[in-house]
Design a protein that fits this description.
- With about 200 residues, the protein is of the alpha/beta class.
- The protein contains six helices and seven strands.
- About 35% of the residues lie in helices and about 20% in strands.
- A seven-stranded mixed β-sheet has the order 3-2-1-4-5-6-7, sandwiched between helices.
- Helix 1 runs parallel beside helix 6.
Length: about 200
């Protein structure tokens, strides 16, 4: 039976689309069964509707307390019973209770070579540090921000004339294949944490 994937997005959902493409063409033995966003205007929601994938919106602005937002997200996820929860450009920090509920089955992609530069503004940080290479990381989600076990990484060179914007685009161009590869590894290993690459 194909694995059931729920994807969480906040924007146009390019990583979700890459994952769904891989499911549809057989590279992943899986199906995207839900696209959930914390933003009702996220472009990826319309893309999901066009592909006839169920969507849900849990608008974080409707919740004064983060735990209430987490609870609402968790209730939606429980209803669709996914095997995997995949954060694909989801720009909200999830609380420990929700993360632990999906321990070993919740993935995130982060635009840096973790453990370098957790959090935001990773491309600017890499440039400010004078790094010669940058990249992206897929990792299991744990309660500590961007600190879960690493599944796989991709590295890209930092060019002399790079700006944060150009570096971001070069990293994004590699993220889609990286996320599909990470999911393939997870499906093959049933979610067992994989060895961290040495940074």
């Amino acid at each position: 039976m194909s694995a059931r994937i729920a994807t969480l997005i906040s924007g146009r959902g390019s990583n979700f689309l890459a994952i769904d493409d891989a499911c549809r063409d057989g590279r992943l033995d899986a199906e995207v069964v839900l696209v959930l966003s914390n933003r009702p205007d996220a472009g990826g929601l319309q893309a999901a509707r066009e592909r006839r994938i169920p969507v849900a919106v849990v608008d974080h602005d409707d919740y004064a307390v983060r735990s209430d937002f987490d609870r609402a997200v968790g209730e939606v996820l429980e209803r669709v019973a996914p095997d995997w929860v995949v954060l694909a450009g989801f720009m909200r920090v999830l609380g420990a209770d929700l993360v632990e509920r999906w321990a070993g089955r919740m993935l995130n992609i982060h635009p840096s070579l973790l453990p370098r530069y957790p959090g935001l503004d990773t491309h600017a940080k890499a440039l400010a540090a004078g790094d010669q290479e940058h990249g992206a990381t897929v990792h299991f989600v744990t309660p500590e921000l961007d600190a879960g076990p690493i599944i796989t990484q991709v590295r890209v060179p930092v060019l002399p004339d790079d700006t944060a914007a150009t570096l971001s685009q070069r990293v994004l161009a590699c993220e889609h294949a990286l996320y599909v590869d990470a999911l393939a590894q997870c499906l093959a290993t049933s979610g067992a944490p994989l060895a961290n690459p040495v940074d």
